[in-house]
Automatic annotation (TrEMBL):
SUPFAM superfamilies: HAD-like (SSF56784). This is Haloacid dehalogenase, type II. The keyword NADP does not apply. It holds the Pfam family Hydrolase. InterPro entries: HAD-like_sf, HAD_sf, PGP-like_dom2, S-2-haloacid_dehalogenase. Keywords: Hydrolase. It comes from Mixia osmundae (strain CBS 9802 / IAM 14324 / JCM 22182 / KY 12970). One of its GO terms (molecular function) is hydrolase activity.
Length: 247
């Protein structure tokens, strides 16, 4: 049996706690004055970045998501803390720099190991750049004592970036690229894993079974996106369900 499991990266493989902590550290007093908090500011930033990244792509003005993150942040900070008449350049850079050091979600590396040992090739499909995605996984393995690092030997070949087709998710061209790279003639089982249901819908449309992990969205919106083939509250449980379904 051969198969593949394609993981979304931002929010699914890696969380944003360090970014949220930096927002709080950089703007603690201003956040309190504006009666808001770092998590709310981060979520606004993340969702506005995803929106603008996608809209730029749809407008034939594809822009790498790292540039969108950086460009959008001052606007988000002003919206969250309108008493700030100007956003200095130094503090936003401290925040965006944290995107280079995202921490892996609990169970990520163990799940990759178990899936690969079960005959399922693991891929990472990202809105981000291939190089920065490789760096995140490399850091995760470097920080994990005793974890099997076999996946690193073919990591570069397993990263699929929207930059390669200059089309942002959920553009069909991006998912067609993932399908072309992963669903080859000898693949019997093709899975797509994400923490947000909007990512699963276009993946299903090109032929993947879908696996939703609930730690980001918490509440499924099946009336819009349908039921995932499997769902779980953690990557460990999700990978176990994927493996069980292929036996």
């Amino acid at each position: 049996m051969r198969g593949c499991v394609v993981f979304d990266v931002f929010g699914t493989c890696f969380g944003f706690d360090n970014v949220i902590d930096e927002i709080h550290k950089s703007y603690a007093q201003d956040l309190e004055r504006a009666d808001t908090n770092a998590q709310a500011v981060f979520l606004s930033w993340f969702y506005q970045t995803q929106r603008d990244f996608t809209y730029l792509s749809l407008s034939d003005t594809y822009t790498p998501i790292a540039q969108v993150f950086a460009a959008v942040l001052p606007r988000v900070l002003r919206q969250a803390m309108p008493h700030l008449s100007k956003i200095d350049e130094s503090r936003p850079k401290l925040i965006t720099d944290q995107l280079k050091s995202l921490q892996p979600r609990p169970g990520l590396l163990e799940s990759i190991k178990n899936l690969e040992e079960a005959g399922l090739d693991v891929y990472a499909f990202t809105n981000g750049a291939a190089a920065s995605t490789k760096a995140l996984f490399s850091q995760a393995y470097a920080q994990s004592s005793g974890m099997d690092t076999a996946f690193l030997s073919h990591l570069e070949a397993r990263i699929i970036s929207c930059d390669q087709v200059k089309a942002a998710k959920p553009d069909r061209k991006a998912y067609d690229l993932a399908k072309e790279r992963t669903i080859t003639d000898n693949v019997e089982h093709a899975w797509f894993v994400a923490a947000h249901q909007w990512d699963l819908l276009p993946a299903r449309n090109v032929g993947y079974k879908t696996a939703w992990v609930s730690y980001e969205e918490l509440e499924p919106v099946t009336s819009l996106f349908g039921e995932p083939d499997v769902s779980a509250d953690s990557l460990n449980d999700l990978s176990d369900k994927i493996i069980a379904s292929t036996r």
